[in-house]
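Not sure how to ask, but would you mind making up any protein sequence you like and the tokens describing how it folds?
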Amino acid sequence: MTRVLVIGAYGMIGAEVARDLTAHGIAVTALGRSQATARRVLPDADWVFHDLRDLPAATDWAPLVAGHSHVINCAGALQENGRDNLSVVHDAAISALAKACAEAEVGLIQISAVGAEASAPTEFMGSKARGDAAVRAAGGAWWIYRPGLVLARTGYGGTALMRLLAAVPVIQPITFARSRMQTVGMSDICAVIRRTLAGEIAPGTEADLVEDEVHTLEEIIAAYRTWLGFAPARMTLRLPGWMTRPVGWLADGLGRLGWRSPLRSTALSITAAGVEGDALQTHALLGCSATPLQQTLAQASARAEDRLSARIGLLMPLVIAGLSLFWISSGLIGAARLSQAAETLAEWPVWLAKTSVLFWAAVDVALGLTVLYRPWVKRALWGMVAVCGIYLVSASVFTPALWLDPLGPLVKVIPAALLALITLPMVESR
């Protein structure tokens, strides 16, 4: 049985490729970085776990590619942050991988991107281009495919941006409305990969994977709005391009805290430039045109969870910001009004009451700050739930009269705990 290695196998493209190949009787070894995410996305896959940053040489890749007929590289990162280094993920690690594949006589299928050129204005495209060049230079059997705007069942990457914009109720805000885009569905990408594995496409082939028709960004968002089942916008608010700059700067800042927003400056730059490829190249690979946008969307009707995911993507920044503000404000107010807060513990010694207030004020502020750091957000949310529970139980024991306070300080703790619990599934990465 043919066995292939899929790199980046829990990403948007990698997961679909792994599922499709498995469904067609091709054995898959899946490579990813996070065991927890991998087990959620593809629980039955045959996994190996590595960070591409730890595979800088061909000798590091040699034992991983051994025993496989082909390697399919679907790994990618949009922009630099604490966990993603574009020069490694797209270039250095792929150069080492290509050399290992050539030495082992293993075919390498490189999933690149339309617009990946050395002169590209974004590091995403530039690093992709350097990786493609490394694949060519290594020799051996290789194929390079450059998808356009990928339409996938899951909402990540460019798809996430379209869904987020389509989820805005009543008014449709849009920038770069006339940007030109060509899409490609995952079914066509998977079909090209299967044809490659079957030997129907010659090694050394490079091609764009895009549909024939070119759409404007405004048309694509409208198509997603219809697909998701949202009411048509009552008006469209076309914003000038310069207004995206502060949005991109803010999203980039959040990226340094681990938040991979679809509104980061790289995504906005690519959107402004448009995504256009050569549809004739796709036709040559498939023997027909790629599936058009409307048909791709129609092949899989939107589910309730798709609509919920789009709305959550829109609301999550507000929810996280609101939780952070609530907890930080709670702690600072308690510390600023120390004497008054300590009076609620009238039966305690003054020094002990004040110490308790200051301690829990510090805990509140710490939780409010920690929830902003993406790698620790789950811990912070569970910490909020736990602290709310401690407040309710301890207040019921030591200051039960607070339950009857007309301002309801204890009653308000309950929705704070519930909001933290509701936010937990919202921050799942996959």
